Fold each of these.
Amino acid sequence: MKEAGVFFFEKKKQKTFIRLGFVLLTAAAPLSPERSSYLEGCGGCHGIDGQSYAPKVPDLTRQAGYFLCTPEGRRYILRLPNVAFSHLDNAQLAATMNYVVFTLGEGTAPAGAKPITEAEIAAVRGTPIDDPDLLRVRAGIVAGILRACPAARGLLAYGAP
Amino acid sequence: MIVFDTVTERFARRFARGSSRRSLLARFGAALLAAPAFPLLPVARAKAAEPDLNGLTDFERNAQTKDPAKCSYWRHCAIDGILCGCCGGGLHTCPPGAEPSPICWIGTCRNPDDGRHYVIAYRDCCGRTSCTTKDPDCDCNTNDRDMPIYTPFNSNDILWCFGKSAATYHCSTAVLMGEAS
């Protein structure tokens, strides 16, 4: 595609052309509200496409949906401090979290998992996780998830000693 | 002559009956009232075409779209760092010898040309000592929508190069992600 489109351009022009094309392409279609919210509130650390490439930040791509394997996992991701304290309202936050677990985490949510609702957010938002040892809390949640969904082994990569 | 007198008199009387001082006052008054509704002068039309600057941040009021190597360039609304464009890199590219950090600060900036907001990723270039430039226009601290450090996901005061093994900060790029919604 790239080769075909700019075949006749010399190298320097080619680069400019691709860059211009990229800018036009991205600027032409507005981001969806949940994609916008994800980028502004989460994407800086978790990565533009859900892959952080940093050991200190967990990946969301090919992982985030596993948290829906257990009720505790589902509740855990909504009580994460940076989620619960987000500036988004409950409906916007629900849409953003659904984007994270179903779009970025595509293929990892268990079959038949229901979308996160505004009411669910409202119910847990007032009690965010206040245990300073977040990694320990997460390890307990992940252990439960692994029993329900053995395929979720990838979750163990984050926080491993 | 009499005919001429009569015709003139009739015309004068009919005219006087049909155009009273009151009707003149009424029409003049209506015109006075209606005039401001029509922007007649070019000044009024030019003012109407200006964008509404209320509700904009100081940065957004002064933002420009011509020179990316200045802090006032519209995409740099939330940058805390040195522009890579001043250090041998560009808006999207790291200078030679510096690597992009996997972790970045993301902001939303208003393009004054179209009045729309765009999501911008400020990706740091790391692995070289801080870029030194004598141009004060290259070291920016604009920070629109930046929040104190106790809301870490809304604060850009964290050294984002921390995702990299070589965590020395060199400079920052400003990559356009798309139009915000």
Note: Chain B touches chain A through 25 residues (CB under 8 Å).
Amino acid sequence: MCLAIPMRVIKIKESADDMSAPQVAIVDTGGIQKEIRLDVVNRLPNIGDYVLVHAGFAIYALDEQEAEINLRLLRDVAEGKLGKR
Amino acid sequence: MKYLHEFRDKGLASSLAAELEQLVDGPVRFMEVCGTHTMAVFRHGLRSILPEDLYLISGPGCPVCVTSAGYIDAFINVALIPRVTIATFGDMVRVPGTSGSLAHAGARGARIEVVYSPMDALDLADQRPKDLVVFPAIGFETTAPGVAATILEARRRKRENFTVFSAHKVMPPALDALMSNQRLKIQGLLCPGHVSTIIGAKAYKPLAEQYNLSCVIAGFEPIDILQALILLARQAVESRAEVENAYPRAVSWEGNDRAQGLISKVFEPVDAEWRGMGIIPGSGLALRPEFSEFDALERLDIKIPKAPEPKGCRCGEILIGRCLPPDCSLFAKGCTPLEPIGPCMVSTEGTCAAYYRYGRSFSS
Ligand code: SF4
């Protein structure tokens, strides 16, 4: 139920005729495109960003830098470069 | 796909498993709070590479499972009202109530539609102007902001035939209630990733401090889970009890404040009943009076009936880590995913369903 899937934003849609209309993005997941809502997401994503999607809403714009630092640290742990704290 | 492949790397996983093996040199008990973690642990075969002395106990983090029998009965009663359409998440349809499930109500003529998003339920209300669409809203902090946004959108569209039947729950009060139970004897929590995306890592600080409990937030890929378990095991070795975040790409210390704002704009905390845990103060979310026109409980004057748990079902105990599915005499006998007796066997992330699918050989 709390599953959320990372999907890549390929387009941000704004309604031309209704300024109060909420923003919607088109995301791509494995070649399939879907429309999702941006009401909940923490920051407006850029094209190419990944967002976590849950029940039709983007709930977070993923932090790529964090992901990379995270992985680098893990590889260091795995290679025994970091000892116990 | 980016963010997935990297966190499924087999080589990295086995190095991390080896590291974990070194850290664990006596029995440790951790609880994975979230049903999605339960499922991920099984699906990625992690149980087979975890140290023998590391006990992972499932917790109350499956929204369908913790929804009490009274609520399930109330959903079914509402479905049987003429000119009502129930628009619900698929997991709910087969959960047995006192007499049958929503699926059975559907067979008796009730209008039941499965939706993927609360927005789909609102669209359904657009398409069926003569019906009152009721969305049984179950879920934790991950789901509630989207439901709140949908209610705001319903107001913008001036939709008068859309209502939400809120059975939302929030995690921190339930974890607090769980941890105040001394019998559980848990050293650390594997905290739910996507609930934390919304509420932030800071939400666990009081738990860590009050109960001397290690709290590590984990994502859902194998590497994420192993990393979080390493951090938990290290805390155990070093006798620390802190909040650590092993899912920084999706969770910050403060969380998603826009989502938090949506929740508190539309909902207010209420006492709520959890299957297996009884009534926990402030653990539920009800619509604020300003939104009563979208509140199914108000519009249809619904009372939640008292309902007994399914006979013989031990879901309630499983949800609080007191027993495991094989301890239930109905497990895989009277109760299977095709003919479920309790919600823990219905939901794709219920502990009984996970054991049935992946781990029937595991004993308690
Ligand atoms: S096996 Fe079925 S009856 Fe037993 S606890 Fe699980 S859901 Fe309930």
Note: Chain A touches chain B at residues 1-4, 6, 8, 20, 22, 29-30, 37, 39-42, 50, 52, 54-57, 59-60, 62-64, 66-67, 69-71, 74-75, 77-79, 84-85 (CB under 8 Å).
Amino acid sequence: MSVTVNTVRAGVFLDSVVLMQISRELTAIQGVEDAALMMATPANWDILSDAGLVEEGIMAGPGDLLVAVRAQDRAIADSTLQRAAELMERPAQRNDTPQELRPLTLRSACRQLPDANLALISVPGDFAGAEARKALRAGLNVMIFSDNVPLAEEISLKREAHDLGLVVMGPDCGTAIIDGVPLAFANVVPRGDIAIVGASGTGIQEVSCLIARAGEGISHAIGVGSRDLTEAVDAISTLTVLDWLERDVATHHIVLISKPPARSVVDRIAEFIRRSSKSYTVCLVGSDNLELPDNAKLTTTLKDAAAAAVKNSEGFEAVPAVQRAPAAGRYVRGLYSGGTLAAEAQVVFLSHRQPVLSNAPVPGAGLFTSERTNHIMIDLGDDQFTRGRPHPMIDPAVRDEPIHAALSDPDVGAVLLDVVIGFGAHADPAGHLAGLLDRHGRSDSVVIASVTGTDEDPQVRARQVSVLERAGVMVAPSNADAAELALACLNIG
Amino acid sequence: MLRAQSIGALAVREISQSVAGRIAAVFDRSVYVDLGCQWICIGDATVGNGPVNLLLEPTPHSGVFGGLVVDQPVQVCAGTVHLGKRRLIIETATKVWSPPLVSDWTIESLKRGLDALNAISRGRAPRQGLGVFLYGRGSELSDTREACACVFPVFQLESWLLNRLVDMRCVEGVPESVQQLIGLGPGLTPSGDDFLGGVLIALSLVHRQDIAALLYADLCPRLLAGTGPISRTHLAAASAGQGLETLHLAINSVIEGNVEMIPTRLHHVDQIGSSSGWDALAGAYVVLRACLVQPAGLHKSPLGSN
């Protein structure tokens, strides 16, 4: 028999987004039938009472927060309330942490860690430049996680770093693995002799994970910022990093990932590669129009880049066969947390001569505005969706509504998704997606996903894949394979 | 030392006198301060301009509000707010924010804007809260508790607004069921309150403050027992026709029929709470849709200003 328990937190105000996240987490606990965190207003009493969520005799006022749980038994109900209390304490704990225990300035941080050689800057973009400059002048290389750093500031910082024999990674650098140490969003991959230099976070993650799953490893993975290969920035950081890797004995092969760069930059990089003693894979997502020297191979997808980098690409998993009738809807809706993964899917579609629209189109694709009757690839990690909200890699609920909308759209035959795991990412994105699909119910659209990650990641890739498959999702071994699979499901390609 | 970047028109009234108060609520990016008669919100720039908001100039340091706790005393004196050990300076040159004005609009521009809003919000508005009223009726509505509980009150409110908007001689009182919206739904500010706030703001924007005043006068006596203090603060501001800047910009673009701007403005509405922006927009939508129903001879009224 169900048990309902309540807690009243008098005068406690929590941000609406926090209330929603806690509510969602409680509802997902095994054995919990329903849960809600609501302001204890008379109107909410009524709806909670109708839902069987009010414990007899409980009292609260409209300015109080009511935590209500209905569970299969008393033990589950009580432990869920306890969990709610822990989750509600989280922000308070953060506030109560004595700030004196943390270094407040770069100078004091350097005093605590005199051997440090890299500073990770994550402050609002308007201030990132000033902090990065302080770090450079303290002799530190810089990784700028912040976005919204003005272009002129980026150029100035990179020039200064170059003159000092240092490098600036970023801005908007979300991923790095330096000498085996993961920074920001990164995956647990084995050490090896392949280095990755990229202007893209999820691009680096996808390639490093595919290499790891093929049985090889990474020496370093270094993000340089999405604008580094533009004419204005002139590949300052890329060329510095390539120069370091040229002298790095642990690195034998280098993968360079970028959107199509400026012509003048291409020439400089090609010239550097020509003089290099190492072999290269150059992956320019969306462009195959580039002449490279013999020691470099050009690819247009991340999957091909990984295959070209490893000694034996037979270690790649097989793509599952399509075992269902073609979907009724004519179009594919891609809803991505990773920008480069969305770009790669567009490249796959264009290679099959399928017109595709996107909010971040690659060359040959169209700009998505509001038209729905087309293949559409949306990068939900783009600034326009994430300003003031968590990135979908951190909070997958950000794409719940677009997924519901796509699954309800009769024109959509396949919904294409990426699931990115690793450090910094959501603890169970597949579980979240499975719950969402369960709540949505029947849909004529097939759902196809790939999981960027490894079995050594905290979320364990195999476990994520299994959860998705149990939820009826077709899981492809790579993002490019997922796009191919979507086309196959629509009898295209 | 912190400096103010901008201050809402209703907050400035409180700050311009010497008062003592207390910290009433602490969030990551803001605190609410209870100054006796009025609560104000002191936040970083990401909180956005609003009638009761006092925004700080950006600082490179995170955790500006860290260490502040509820019930800590606050003193306001001579342009300085003492928040615990922090001093917040409000210079006379600090920008006083007031809602952006609606540009020229017509019934045609409003219709164009509402059609665009209706189309774009489908699949965009969150399932929880009352944003579903932007596009749904009956079976299309979300199955959430709050949406189901609101169907009848919203229907009655809409009918009442319609009668009031088209018939200047109408003396019908606010339907009793509208009170069911007070304090209803999830969120720090319950969805029903946000919805009513949107109704009040939109009435002001179409120059029907008379109807807004009637509605608020009916709601006001029930707010103390019906909802929390943060919601009451925002509803009081809405009764004066003022809400968050992002909400005003979204509603204005709908009224002006500026369909190119609506998607961008809706992205910003997304950032208001978990669903508060959409709840308020749904309230405004109910008013604006009612404005489309025009009796002959009313086109020169503020509803059809040109």
Note: Chain B is about 40% helix and 15% strand.
Amino acid sequence: MQLHTEKNRSAVLKGVRVLDLTHVVSGPFATLYLSMLGAEIIKIENPRTQGDVSRATGPFKGDVSLRFCSLNHSKHSVALDLTTPEGRDIFLRMAKKSHIVIENFRPGVMEKLGIGYDVLKRENPRIVFGSLSGFGKDGPYRDLPAYDVIAQALSGIMWLNGWEEDPPIKVGTSIADVTAGLNLVIGVLAALREAERTGEGRFVEVSLIDSLVSLMIVDNQEYLFNGILPERIGNNNRKWAPYGVYRASNGYFAIGVGSDEFFQRLALDIFNRPDMAADPRFASHTARVEHRELIDDVLNQWAGTLSVKEVCRALGEAGIPCAPVNTIGDAVADEHIGGARQMFPSLDQEGIGPVPVTQIPLRIHDMEDVPLTSAPRLGEQNGDILCSLLNLSDDEIQGLIERNILGTHQVDRASEEQG
Amino acid sequence: MANTEKKGPLEGLKVLDLTRVLAGPFATMWLAAMGADVIKVENPNDGDVTRQYGPFINDRSSYFPTVNHNKKGITLNMKAEEGRELFRKLAADADVVVENFRPGVMENLGLGYEDLRKINPGIIYASISGYGTYGPYRNRPGYDVTAQGMSGIMFLTGQMDGPPTRVGSSIGDTIAGIDIVVAILAAIYCRNRTGKGQKVETSLVDSLISLSTQDYIRFFAAGEVPCRMGNIYKSWAPYGTYRASDGYYNLGCGTEEHFRKFARGIGQRWMPDDERFSSHALRVAYRDELDAYINEWAQDKTVAQICDLMLQAGVPCAPVNSIVEISKDEHIAGAREMFPVLDQPGMVPYRVTNIPVRFSESGLAPVLPAPEFGGDNDDIYGALGKTAEELKVLREKGVI
């Protein structure tokens, strides 16, 4: 990263140890975020099921799941059977030496394993316990299963997404999973601050559904306030025009005319239409929304003969917010996003070589970036961590492996396509 | 758990909030909801533009309080030297400064991070911008819509044969707001260790891109550019959005067992044994025929009836809710308390949207009114030692 004057300071969460009991997307996204901020993540996986199900989900390179890599690099793995008394005991001893525990099981699973918050708190009063679930720990839906798409449907975000005359549409990324992951990171860091101040940890929880509902704060407001239900409006904006997506000769671009001044520049510098700049039908946001179609006609006519690049250059020179509607390929190749902002660093994954991954969006000035390291093989750090953290001897560790309490790595490559 | 008598986990944290519109105010609203003392600093000449956003009641904006409740408010003209001096005094005693100006604005005022750290080495300076404070696009203006376009999320959203579609909520703003809260809290942890603050930043574009980790895998692995898929999933059927007599519902059969339960649920037990519907791959190939059975079964049933039948049968299913249903939902609005009531002076009490984290021993802050424009000037400048006479002069000069 740039602009730093002294790069000699260690990462911001250095020294924080996290026991990570999560799997699939939402939880691993949260602990990945913490690891990128410098926390030590010990991912605890079930040896009987070959660990996190993402390990068996494609695409693969060699026998390594790239999906697993992208969400679990820079973490350690311990394969520990928590259903055995000995496994549970080892976990509790690790919890005594950790700051944060994070899990995304269905409600009740941690309690059934005998490692719920009440138990952990007795072992370590400072422990911060972060819990992520589909619907939360209370309320009538707490035991229902949830996928990202179910949370999208229930939260109302899907209902707002898409075109007036068409059915609701899914957000094209797993927005519920990742937002809940982010929100849990906030929760555990806020609780960590309190633990540092008071010596007492906290149980923190977040659900997929609440996370999306909270994200829609502004959309909810119109209805909560006066009962008016916002409708799907495709790419338009309720309050501003032109604001949305338009077509150039070879693709799409986004434009945001968010002030009268931007519209003046659009009319004069781009359209060369002083009459439009002076027209009362376009003099305010409200007036422009009302006469949106007239502006759209001129905008479409102008952009229709130009490439996306030409459109963006012209609007950019006029100082009007605009952007190409990028594909992922475009974003990766972009000099700003993939280039200067380094959003896609490569990690050197053991055995298969460089794997590009997506970076977290935070930049902490004057601070070294956390180096990316391989996603762990199942149970890769069993010995290292049990030895350094709990002072177990090689013989004791060997005994745990023989009693199937600690797992060892086995390749289990399941079907290429899974949810 | 949103017990208002318990104190929030950020109790005692002092935040100077220079942000406006959505991304920044959403971030400081999170901090306030977790118990931080947030002082919103507005320009006395115009203030946060969302004070002018509807819907209105008694000429008062409901938008502004929605993302600015639980904050204190002062006015300060930072273009005047006297205003800058007051700001430095406030910053000397603050833990966090948050701003979402275009990069360079604070530096030009002599109030950038390098200036503020000289006054207060522990200060955490947080910045949200469209494209970040460095890189070739740093000076470009950015909105949610441009960030959605730039990040690739818009390209991935929409019908397969339709145009790219904007996510129908301003997630570029709100996600960047969440990310900066993460950065601030991480920097606070670090300061407890080292005694030093630092500058943290995110951009709307970076924030949206970081959400799409999963979507990029196939591109990185094989150069395949992922495309819009509408509501379907390319390897599973039935999976997606369907129409009932009174609205839409989502159905997801992820396993053969789900499909057997589903077939029983719609009264077509023979389906799993039919060659055309015997695997995910075949069901995807015969999706139209499959959908015809589903739609015929659903056409005379309501969304509520369908969800009951499917959930009883053990098939993942949910209504496509609008805010109308959500605001009445026994789980979301009821047990989870996602819509607490705000009693803003001069307005009828109305509901706002809560943050989604809950703490066992700490409560969230009670929902208190958004500040009047400059409403806390007397208290806060008074605490800096300004007398009533001095405040009057500052007011006349337009400094506050």
Note: Chain B has two domains: 14-211+330-396, 239-243+248-319.
